[in-house]
Design brief:
Elements lengths: L3 H27 L4 H13 L1 H12 L3 H26 L2 E2 L2 H22 L3 E2 L1 H24 L1 H12 L1 H6 L2 H32 L4 H13 L1 H12 L3 H26 L4 E2 L2 H23 L3 E2 L1 H23 L4 H31 L3
Antiparallel strand pairs: 1-4, 2-3
Helix pairs in contact: 1-2, 1-9, 1-11, 2-12, 3-4, 3-9, 3-12, 4-10, 4-11, 4-12, 4-13, 4-14, 5-12, 5-13, 6-12, 9-10, 11-12, 14-15
Length: about 350
């Protein structure tokens, strides 16, 4: 059962996310919301529902390390792995709104998360602050999109098909949304119970479980959605899904989990010292990569994937207290990361010079 339960939970997560995204996207299209905003809100929030269900379940059960580690690990996984895999399939075009508004917001929220957690507790007041911020963000996106409604009608026809818009009924789509949510909640509960039980049987700590197994598992809907979107050429949805999911994870998942947890969420020193700073670094890395030409190339995708492998390897070495951990950490800190930052800055300067007028 320790194997069957999480596997069944993952199957329910994927089926539920597919149903939720398909139904919610059609509802949003009928309301006059642009494809980018669909990616940033409906798709992103829908595919982040597993993270929400898992973190709330963990917060109510007193497993703060899983609740917080799930959010931090998912945000790192979303950028490094999902964008990396999607951009390996096809170079991803990044819209100006993402560069000007949403990516800077993701960076600010990541820094604010660290600031609010420095005392070792993410309080209910902090959670409420994040949740209210999410409502304001949603209002802003929908307000901006509806102003452009007349300009987006052709995109809706290309995205969903004119016939689909006429025939797809509200009741059917809402039923898909509700059914998807039910499967997501049930699947996330089975997955968390099974994965925690199995990992504890192997002697793995709660924090590592949250940062790796659960973070990657609950991000599977984002993986599937972004890859399918990339294959179909729906690049706004592919990138918007990742950025929107990260924003929702911090303001929605962490915020609501902080509100419902008795006494707030305890944040471990390891998260404060390493994992949340990594989440900030990953968010910061998006800005120059997104900014240079507005495209995530295959070379940049390989870099993202390599860093995710390095991060996961570090977690495994740290959890096992392996003798090579100090050497690995020193190589990453003093050689690999500085070289990557220098190369990124040089690449950005070169791209800026290309676009500068003669």
């Amino acid at each position: 059962m320790q194997i069957v339960l999480p596997v069944t939970g993952l199957i329910f997560l994927i089926i539920g996310a597919e149903s939720l995204v398909r139904g919610a996207s059609r509802v949003a299209s009928r309301m006059g919301i642009s494809p980018l905003v669909i990616g940033l809100t409906v798709v992103a929030f829908g595919t982040s529902s597993p993270e929400l269900a898992v973190s709330i379940e963990s917060a109510l059960s007193g497993q703060s390390n899983i609740a917080v580690g799930n959010v931090v690990g998912s945000n790192i996984f979303n950028v490094l792995f999902i964008l990396g895999v999607s951009a390996m399939i096809v170079p991803l075009v990044v819209s100006r709104q993402l560069i000007r508004v949403d990516v800077p917001l993701m960076i600010i929220l990541s820094i604010v998360t660290l600031a609010l957690s420095l005392d070792g507790n993410f309080s209910r007041a902090n959670g409420l602050f994040m949740t209210v911020g999410l409502l304001i963000y949603i209002w802003f996106l929908i307000h901006q999109s509806r102003k452009e409604k007349a300009l987006k009608e052709d995109e809706f026809k290309n995205e969903f098909g004119a016939e689909e818009q006429r025939k797809s009924g509200w009741l059917k789509n809402i039923a898909m949304v509700v059914g998807g949510l039910v499967l997501l909640v049930l699947g996330s509960r089975w997955f968390v119970d099974g994965a925690v039980s199995f990992a504890q049987f192997l002697g793995v700590s709660e924090l590592i479980i949250g940062l790796t197994i659960i973070a990657a598992g609950t991000s599977l809907p984002e993986v599937v959605t972004s890859i399918i979107a990339a294959i179909r050429g729906e690049r706004d949805i592919a990138v918007g899904n990742v950025v929107g999911s990260n924003i929702f994870n911090i303001m929605g998942v962490l915020g609501i989990a902080g509100v419902v947890a008795p006494g707030g969420l305890t944040v471990s020193p390891a998260l404060i010292a390493f994992d949340i700073p990594v989440m900030i670094g990953v968010a910061l890395a998006c800005l120059p990569i997104f900014f240079t030409g507005g495209v995530i190339s295959k070379q940049e995708a390989v870099l993202f994937l390599a860093y995710y492998v390095a991060y996961t390897l570090y977690l495994v070495l740290a959890a096992s207290q392996h003798a090579s951990l100090p050497i690995f950490s020193s190589v990453m800190l003093f050689f690999v990361i500085p070289l990557t930052v220098a190369a990124g800055l040089l690449y950005m300067i070169r791209e800026l010079k290309k676009g500068a007028p003669e």
